Structure formats: C-alpha cells, structure tokens
C-alpha cells in the first residue's frame, strides 16, 4: 500500500509539476498578450493625442476665421448704417426740394406773366426730384444686393467651416 501511495504521490507530484509548468506558460502568454495590448493602447493614445492637437489647431484657425467674418460683418453693418443715414439725408433733401417747388408754385399763382417761366422751373424741379428718387432707389437697391451677396458668401463659408468643427 505504501508503494502504491508513493506511486500515486509521485504521479500527483508529476501532475502538479506539469500543471505548474502549464500554468507558468499560460501566465507568460497572458503577460505577453497584456504587454502587446498595452503597447497597442499606448500607440492608440499617441495617435489620438496627435489627432486632438490637429483638431485643436483646426478649431483655432476656424475661430480666427470666424472673428474675421464677424469683423467684416460689423464693417458691412456699419456701412449699411451710413448708407441709411445718407438715405435719410437724401429724403430730407427731397422734402426740401418739394417744399421749394411748393413755394415756387405759390409765387407762380400770384403773378400771371411769370406763370410760364415758373411752370418750366417747377417741371425742372420735378424732373430733378424724380431723378433723385430714381437715383436713390437704384443706390439703395445696389447697396442692398451687395450686402446680401456679401452676407451670403460669409454665411456659406461659415456654415461649411462650422460643419467641420461640429464633426
């Protein structure tokens, strides 16, 4: 019985030794796999850090471009305000010209022999008024179309750049 137990004990020790060797191999393989995964993860982290730096640079560039667009927008708004002020001045001038015409009409009605000359002057003033109104309308139309075109250009570029930032 003793020999049988010793034989079983030897077999168990051998089996234990084999299990330890197998366990050690498994541990080493796992260590290799963990090291490989760690190296892969570190490489991925480096790549992501580089991409983050690139994206930050892109965002900075786009912020600068956005600031330029805002500045240009403010300039155009200021220009529009100035044009509107000029428009108000032109309207006042038109009102003044209308008042002048009215005064001339009163003078013409008082004097019959000056009627023809005054009538001609009135027609000339009306022509000038129409011309000024047409000129005013064309100037306003031109300014409006230029501002619309500029805003459309800026808004188109801004949306494309903004989509890049959001993505």
Automatic annotation (TrEMBL):
PANTHER family: CENTROSOMAL PROTEIN OF 128 KDA. Keywords: Coiled coil. It comes from the Eukaryota. Residues 2-121 form a coiled coil. The keyword Cell membrane does not apply. This is Centrosomal protein of 128 kDa. One of its GO terms (cellular component) is spindle pole. It comes from Leptosomus discolor.
